[in-house]
């Protein structure tokens, strides 16, 4: 029997009333389209069978202070589907960030809405740089933010009193979530699908998206770092932290504790996996950073030396030459010649 258009609408409305997972999306100005698309498409594919896009087991809305089109960082525009409503209608409010160069990524009405959601204990999730928006609104206190390694330094500079990390894909607790963006948005959405709908729904969504399996929150962010040849996740996490504290201010004992090891255990693992001690690896990380700065900037040697934790240019020059076989000035000249 064929359903008339009015009956289709009634069926959709009934489905929405029984949806197990309801998500509201707040899109910032110049938001990252891929992060939003992967998150919402994971919900869409998990919500129904046979790729029919029905909102049977999940429902979602793009909510905003106006119905004006919101332009993403790539220029594609998205229209909000709902005004701001009672935030308790949603299981999660997801804030999708984008370019950090945008001075006011969301308006004051949006900030007020997010604070209302917090007051009503509705969990808030920052996707891509959405955690910057939540932090600026004072909504990431007592919560650890997970950001891309590309944005770690800027987050620390903007919010020095807040906890942040960039070695993992995403964090999700009962009241806050944050993720590095990109494909990790699908991983986070898959975790919500598994929690609220089922593992079968999660598997169906990921298969259609051609994703072999969802990654866990603690999985390491992919990038081209020094540890690329090492397969131990503790070594990778430790070396990412070294890069985050490239001025050499992270004690080895604290570094070991951050990856769940004692200093002696960390020493053994580094010798076994990398052939060098954590202290030597840390020094290499700092020298590699200095090498990159020398090639890409005109900063004076003393400035670079201070950035990577040396007290003076002569000490930095000796260490650099011992590491790479040439002085910083020789390296800079060679880089420019090429």
UniProtKB/TrEMBL annotation:
Record-annotated HTH araC/xylS-type domain positions: 236-334
Molecular function GO labels: DNA-binding transcription factor activity; sequence-specific DNA binding
Alphabetic keyword roster: DNA-binding, Transcription, Transcription regulation
Name of the protein described by the UniProt record: Transcriptional regulator GlxA family with amidase domain
Record lineage: Bacteria, Pseudomonadati, Pseudomonadota, Alphaproteobacteria, Hyphomicrobiales
Pfam families referenced in this protein's UniProt entry, alphabetically: DJ-1_PfpI, HTH_18
Keyword Phosphoprotein applies: no
InterPro entries: Class_I_gatase-like, DJ-1/PfpI, Homeodomain-like_sf, HTH_AraC, HTH_AraC-typ_CS, INH-QAR, Tscrpt_reg_AraC-type_HTH
PROSITE patterns hit by this protein: HTH_ARAC_FAMILY_1, HTH_ARAC_FAMILY_2
